[in-house]
Amino acid sequence: MKNITDSFLSLGYWPSAGSFGFNTDILATNPINLSVVLGVLIFFGKGVLSDLLDNRKERILKTIRNSEELREGAIERLENARVRLRKVEMEADRFRVNGYSEIEREKFNLINSIYTTLEQLENYKNETIHFEQQRAINEVRQRVFQQALQGALGTLNSCLNNELHLRTISANIGMFGTMKEIK
């Protein structure tokens, strides 16, 4: 039996409208069907596809512009952060240098203060020693004087009698009167 498609192509006439069948010749029917489907899709889908592609293109361009703006903002923030970092590093270096010099200055002041305090303590010690020496010397002098006075009084009391005692008192009063006249 002959295929309908073969007879359609070979005879050049239309088959009767009452018959309907499947064409099993894939090579003959697929290019025709595909060209029809593609033609319909291109004709009707061209506007929709064009709109979709335009929208997609606009979204991509908008995304690219936003990305560029974000990139520029990020670069600007990065530069600002770098400037702040340099300032902070310089400030830290300044604090470090000032801190070290302040520490050295405080150390020097502390050493000077301790040296001054030690000198004062040494002076107080020397003054205390000198004072104690003077006090000891005065005590020894007083004791020696008291012992000498007691010895002299003892000698005078043992050697003096009433007459000698009265003459000594008169001589001393006489010396005292002469001293008043000299003044």
Global mean pLDDT: 82
| Number of DSSP helical runs | 3
Largest sheet: none
Oligomer: single chain
Could you characterize what this model shows?
With 183 residues, the chain is mostly helical. It has a domain at 33-131. The protein is built from three helices and no strands. The chain has helices spanning 4-11, 26-159, 162-182. The longest helix is centred in the middle third of the chain and has 134 residues, at 26-159.
List keywords for this structure.
mainly alpha, disordered N terminus, 0% strand, 183 residues
Chart the SSEs and their pairings:
Blueprint: H1 4-11, H2 26-159, H3 162-182
Quick overview of this protein structure:
The chain is an all-alpha fold.
